[in-house]
Design goal:
single chain, alpha+beta, seven-stranded antiparallel β-sheet, 27% helix
Length: 128
């Protein structure tokens, strides 16, 4: 399965992660990342748009909308699982989170304890 992966705060929930927080995380994880700050035309919400190069030499793309959603594309759950696990570790324990894959766009609550790359990969693969 390859396509976009979505990790998001459920409706009515805001994550405590600012654009600065996520940009610092991305720069630490991917020192050569190309990151720009943009604004959603429809809502005026700020977001980060980023391209990162993986060890396999492929460039992958992502978007983080402030305090609420992370979209990762151009890769499989296995490609992104380590990054998702590290991102989730930035959130306080118990922070409500939902996941979704492009092929099956139905949000699923992230089960408590789904924090390891393997567990995240398995969950995302089961959704597609």
């Amino acid at each position: 399965m390859s396509g976009s992966l979505f990790i998001a705060a459920p409706p009515g929930v805001q994550w405590p992660l600012s654009l600065d927080d996520v940009e610092a995380f991305l720069r630490q994880r991917f020192p050569d990342a190309m990151i720009t700050r943009e604004t959603l035309a429809t809502s005026g919400e700020p977001y980060l748009d980023f391209d990162v190069r993986f060890p396999d030499g492929m460039t992958r793309h992502g978007v983080y909308v402030e305090r609420g959603s992370l979209m990762l594309s151009d890769g499989t759950p296995a490609d992104w699982a380590d990054t998702i696990a590290a991102f989730l570790a930035l959130l306080p324990p118990g922070t409500p989170t939902a996941v979704m894959v492009e092929d099956e766009p139905v949000p699923v609550p992230l089960p408590e304890g789904t924090t390891t790359p393997d567990a995240i990969r398995e969950l995302l693969e089961s959704l597609g």
